[in-house]
């Protein structure tokens, strides 16, 4: 099997992206040729106009979805527990995710895809379970060090505006190719699977891609909103 590239469009602030990452990684672990799969995370912002300041998640979600917000959080908390993921929505702080996306691009360009993957997991776990403010440079630097990056290099990067244009362009490209909800998994630039699908679904797609099959079934349908597997732009 030749190397397969999977580009995952996601936002740190998307709970279904956290679930989807976990499920996809379990599928990779079960896939006999998983070592030949390169995973790269691409940026997407559910709310690009979000203010650059921390706000309590409960308040932000209630303002968007009203009375159903609490039920959405409860469902994800239960689902996360079944997946081995902790969701502590009382501690979650919402913030504009652009700075964190820039850091992820820095990790990819400087350290490679594996380091970016580790950082992505650290950021999402921190955001959803540990009260991490994804817009705070000091806290982002701490997360980067935990993921194996060099603090001095990260702090220097975060103090400037490098890669801002590149990340903004990547986000624009995501919309141009039709990404409207996340997570969206693009295999070999040809086949897209939207949403935090079951591990078995991801495994089946990997097997199909490995056979170089252009089956239309590779494009699994997604869902609107954050309640059914994907988070859509609000």
TrEMBL record:
Residues 6-205 form the DSBA-like thioredoxin domain. InterPro entries: DSBA-like_thioredoxin_dom, Thioredoxin-like_sf. GO terms for molecular function: oxidoreductase activity. Pfam families: DSBA. SUPFAM superfamilies: Thioredoxin-like (SSF52833). Gene3D superfamilies: Glutaredoxin (3.40.30.10). PANTHER family: GLUTATHIONE S-TRANSFERASE KAPPA, THIOREDOXIN SUPERFAMILY PROTEIN. This is Putative oxidoreductase. It comes from Actinacidiphila reveromycinica.
């Amino acid at each position: 099997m030749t190397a397969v590239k999977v580009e995952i469009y996601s936002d740190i602030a998307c709970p279904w992206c956290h679930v989807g990452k976990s499920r996809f990684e379990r599928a990779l672990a079960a896939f006999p040729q998983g070592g030949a799969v390169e995973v790269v995370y691409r940026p997407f912002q559910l709310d690009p106009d979000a203010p650059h300041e921390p706000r309590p998640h409960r308040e932000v979600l209630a303002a968007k979805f009203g009375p159903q917000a609490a039920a959405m959080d409860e469902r994800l908390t239960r689902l996360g527990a079944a997946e081995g993921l902790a969701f502590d929505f009382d501690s979650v702080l919402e913030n504009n995710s652009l700075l964190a996306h820039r850091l992820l691009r820095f990790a990819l360009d400087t350290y490679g895809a594996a380091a970016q993957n580790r950082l992505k997991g650290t950021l999402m776990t921190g955001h959803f379970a540990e009260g991490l403010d994804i817009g705070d440079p000091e806290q982002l630097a701490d997360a980067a060090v935990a993921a194996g990056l060099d603090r001095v290099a990260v702090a220097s990067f975060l103090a400037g505006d490098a890669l801002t244009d590149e990340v903004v362009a990547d986000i624009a490209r995501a919309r141009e190719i039709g990404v409207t909800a996340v997570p969206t998994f693009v295999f070999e630039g040809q086949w897209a699977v939207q949403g935090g699908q079951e591990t078995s679904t991801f495994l089946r797609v990997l097997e199909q891609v490995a056979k170089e099959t252009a089956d239309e079934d590779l494009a699994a349908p997604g869902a609107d909103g954050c309640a059914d597997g994907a988070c859509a732009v609000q």
